[in-house]
Amino acid sequence: xxxxxxxxxxxxxxxxxxxxxxxxxxxxxxxxxxxxxxxxxxxxxxxxxxxxxxxxxxxxxxxxxxxxxxxxxxxxxxxxxxxxxxxxxxxxxxxxxxxxxxxxxxxxxxxxxxxxxxxxxxxxxxxxxxxxxxxxxxxxxxxxxxxxxxxxxxxxxxxxxxxxxxxxxxxxxxxxxxxxxxxxxxxxxxxxxxxxxxxxxxxxxxxxxxxxxxxxxxxxxxxxxxxxx
Length: 229
Prior knowledge:
By secondary structure, the protein is of the alpha/beta class. It contains seven helices and twelve strands. It has helices spanning 3-15, 23-34, 49-62, 76-86, 99-102, 151-154, 172-183, and strands at residues 66-70, 92-95, 113-116, 125-129, 132-134, 139-143, 158-164, 168-169, 192-195, 200-201, 209-210, 217-223. Strands 1-12-7-4-2-3 form a six-stranded parallel sheet, sandwiched between helices. A hairpin with a 7-residue loop joins β10 and β11 (209-210). It is globular, with a radius of gyration of 20 Å. The two termini are 29 Å apart.
């Protein structure tokens, strides 16, 4: 445990008038942090990879997402251009600076206007990668960082997410395992967003409004045949 964390937790214990943790309890905490136990794993998403991906697609579409499947990452720019044309959206895209999406062959679609970086609220369409897709609910796990600004997840009215088939896990608990594997021990992103479908609300007179707190469209481009990094 870092000195800063130890000091903070010590202050909390003192404010609660509790003694310092015994050595064996402290060791147990350290073991739990080093090897976090897995919670219950629902059986629903524990399927062979093709069936797991199919369940993710179904659940995402049930949550009002649209999904396009492509064979390779090189096919993503064409899929983006086709989607924007189909939805009568401008051929202008704010892309996360993450190499997973920023380094795609965008030059194959020269009519797309590509810019990279965080959104200032004036972008109509954004595109980001995801850490994982969760089959049991059709949920996307998105993280914040210099290469994945959270503003891209919520400010544009249309959000496009690139997800590899190999990133689709069965359950939420397995998505957290993937997140720990990707970031490494003792390191986590500042923010983890779990997004299921486009933003919506029926708080006012039970009338469904899309885009209430974020994008009104969520489109997933699923790259088949791609293993986890």
